[in-house]
Specification:
Distance between the termini: 21 Å
Strand content: 5-15%
Number of strands: 8
Shape: elongated
Helix content: 40-55%
Protein name: DUF2851 family protein
Largest sheet: 6 strands, mixed
């Protein structure tokens, strides 16, 4: 309930007439203040008139007035600047660390807001606010999607920055790890990131001119060479597979030379995975891309269009994998090139966030602008999330829109964080019409 009180105060959903402190002084809210999500009072720099006197300071909100003491605010000087304590139940008087009595005001949550908030939390339908989606003003939808798009890029920027920090500040290596993670296309993303973090790129650079050695190093570090199985723990007669034997011998040499240790092969997932997405295939494609010098950050920075990005990341498998999906099991010949859809996903999830993150790091605003322009130039993703929003009345026109809607689903709808969502605000604000 306290979170809902914050929301009612922030958006002025209370009845502003007749507000008064518990000791009878009239209260007029000029400015509710800036919502603080960190330590300290809940709202900074509020402006309220109490008994005709204008106060500028902070506001604290609790379900019960006694929470002030229970939370230790009566001994914390950080709360001495509170000019108004807003509560749902005034069950105690409050004072700050100097002994000064803090003005208190009882504020209820309007019944229609409480009822509809409970409805949002209780519904099993996604999105829970589907009823009002068709009635939303276009400007509301457009502005919220723009904010969500930026939020998603910021979130991905944080992840890329953390990878750079883990690689001793190398943005080149952070790009390789980010690219590898997205080669997992969701289900093996974590495993691919663990693998990429375990690939010694400085050592690999000494053998970059030899595609076989690159593939041996990459497959070996993935833990896919060492047990005589097809990579899923099943004996496929791989002892007689000459290519596997060559890779094993080459990796043994490289492992001794560079003191290498593979990741645990059980990290890889195969269930409900199309053979085209098996890690063997994706790693061979990555090895080809690396051998051809197309995993470098400098090459990405030269890309000016979505087509440039697609051409940079378009790759293929080595000859052995054209007739195999796992070791020892021959299949019909297939060049196993990345599809146009896969290349677009790599552009959306790797190239664009990397341009934005590196632009932020180097304070090069042109790179950030290019990231937004590329998102706007790409077609939207076509997945269950985007189709659901389309059924509700929001049609993604570009990849920027689809990324925003994915962010909305994961960061707000899945967490039932309707109080931070602009659609949720519209739902609560218009709730009177539904009752």
């Amino acid at each position: 309930m306290e979170q809902l009180l914050h929301y009612v105060w922030k958006h002025r959903l209370y009845d502003g007439a007749g507000l008064s402190t518990t000791d009878g002084r009239e209260v007029e809210v000029i400015d509710p203040g800036l919502h603080n999500t960190d330590a300290g009072p809940d709202f900074f720099n509020a402006k309220v008139k109490i008994g005709g006197t204008l106060w500028v300071g902070n506001v604290e909100i609790h379900d019960r007035a006694s929470d002030w003491t229970a939370h230790g605010h009566h001994t914390d000087a950080a709360y001495d600047s509170v000019v108004l304590h807003v509560v749902a139940c005034a069950d105690a008087a409050t004072a700050d660390s100097r002994g000064r009595r803090v003005a208190q005001m009882v504020m209820g949550v309007p019944p229609y807001v409480a009822d509809n908030y409970r409805e949002l939390l209780a519904t099993d339908t996604y999105p829970p606010c589907y009823r009002i989606i068709p009635t939303l003003p276009p400007m509301t939808v457009t502005s919220w999607l723009a904010a969500l798009q930026a939020e998603r890029l910021e979130q991905k920027t944080g992840a890329i920055s953390r990878r750079a920090a883990m690689r001793a500040g190398s943005w080149e290596e952070a790009y390789f790890v980010t690219l590898a993670r997205n080669y997992g296309f969701g289900i093996n993303g974590d495993a691919f990131e663990a693998w990429a973090m375990n690939v010694p790129l400085q050592a690999a650079a000494h053998h970059r001119d030899d595609p076989f050695q690159v593939e041996a190093l990459f497959m070996g570090q993935a833990g896919l060479l060492g047990d005589g199985t097809d990579g899923r723990g099943r004996d496929k007669g791989t002892a007689a597979d000459a290519y596997l034997a060559r890779l094993q011998a080459e990796y043994a040499y490289l492992a001794r030379k560079f003191s290498l240790r593979p990741i645990d092969r059980t990290l890889w997932r195969f269930m409900r995975l199309r053979p085209q997405n098996f890690p063997h295939i994706r790693i061979s494609q990555m090895a080809t891309l690396y051998h051809e010098g197309r995993t470098g950050l400098s090459q990405l920075l030269e890309c000016r269009s979505a087509d440039d990005v697609r051409q940079l990341l378009a790759t293929r498998v080595s000859p052995y994998w054209e007739t195999h999906y796992t070791f020892g099991a021959e299949s019909a010949r297939n060049p196993k090139r990345l599809s146009g859809q896969s290349l677009s996903l790599l552009a959306i999830n790797t190239a664009i966030p990397m341009l934005f993150a590196y632009g932020r790091h180097t304070m090069d605003e042109s790179l950030c602008e290019r990231a937004f322009e590329l998102l706007d130039s790409l077609k939207p993703e076509n997945n269950a999330i985007i189709r659901t929003w389309r059924e509700c009345g929001i049609n993604a026109r570009t990849a920027a829109d689809s990324q925003a809607l994915i962010q909305l689903k994961h960061a707000y709808c899945d967490r039932r964080d309707c109080l931070r969502c602009r659609f949720g605000y519209e739902y609560l604000k218009k709730a009177k019409a539904h009752t």
